[in-house]
């Protein structure tokens, strides 16, 4: 999926530079925005070397965070559940509109994994350090309405209206000067991305260490069997 996503972003970028796109909306293809990562892929990381896994994770992050290279505002239309990497991708967007009933969560530690894909960087900037720590360390999920209260999203609405509302917001943005809008987006992202590369490297290294632990296999197996994991904290 990463390579396909990068190709799509590249095509949109070309259209942006031709002046054909002034704002972009990202949404899920089904009932969920994104239900989380591929657990089989995660299990394969357990059998790989930590140093190699660190490089793999940096490439993985890049394959999705490349969306921030688009020069136009990106609106995430979170039409359903957004868990793990899916929510990370939504946080990488400029604005988020969510379904009231959607469940949002960064449930990494419940699987025995360190959070990744810049969520430890973006989340505190969106909801504040205390709320971010609570969400990341407990692996709790929140509803769309709760996400609005936290400041994680800018708008919460009924599920069927999410994409429409996001498109309306994109159209409103597109009425403004494209030069001014794009320069404003660039300035805002510059502030958001200070120390981002350092955070990504830290996440990649920490995830690589977690992949080597038996807690990873226990977390994924427990999730599959719908039971509470029994973590030992040993490799």
Automatic annotation (TrEMBL):
GO biological process, one term: fatty acid beta-oxidation
Pfam families per UniProt: ECH_1
A GO CC term assigned to this protein in UniProt: mitochondrion
Name by which UniProt lists this protein: ClpP/crotonase-like domain-containing protein
Family: Belongs to the enoyl-CoA hydratase/isomerase family.
InterPro entries tied to this protein: ClpP/crotonase-like_dom_sf, Enoyl-CoA_hyd/isom_CS, Enoyl-CoA_hydra/iso
GO terms of molecular function: catalytic activity
């Amino acid at each position: 999926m990463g390579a396909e996503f990068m190709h799509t972003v590249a095509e949109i970028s070309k259209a942006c530079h031709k002046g054909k796109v002034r704002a972009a909306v990202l949404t899920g293809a089904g009932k969920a925005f994104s239900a989380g990562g591929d657990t089989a892929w995660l299990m394969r990381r357990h059998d790989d070397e930590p140093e190699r896994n660190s490089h793999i994770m940096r490439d993985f992050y890049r394959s999705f965070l490349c969306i921030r290279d688009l020069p136009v505002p990106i609106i995430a239309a979170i039409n359903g559940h957004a868990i793990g990497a899916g929510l990370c991708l939504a946080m990488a967007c400029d604005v988020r509109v969510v379904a009231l009933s959607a469940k949002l969560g960064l449930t990494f530690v419940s699987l025995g994994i360190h959070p990744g894909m810049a969520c430890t960087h973006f989340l505190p900037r969106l909801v504040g350090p205390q709320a971010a720590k609570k969400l990341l360390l407990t692996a709790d999920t929140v509803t769309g309405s709760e996400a609005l209260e936290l400041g994680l999203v800018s708008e919460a609405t009924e599920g069927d209206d999410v994409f429409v509302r996001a498109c309306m917001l994109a159209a409103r943005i597109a009425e403004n000067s494209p030069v001014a809008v794009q320069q404003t987006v660039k300035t805002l992202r510059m502030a958001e991305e200070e120390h981002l590369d350092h955070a990504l490297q830290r996440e990649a290294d920490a995830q690589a260490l977690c992949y080597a632990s038996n807690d990873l296999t226990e977390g994924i197996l427990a999730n599959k069997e719908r039971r509470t994991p029994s973590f030992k904290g040993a490799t």
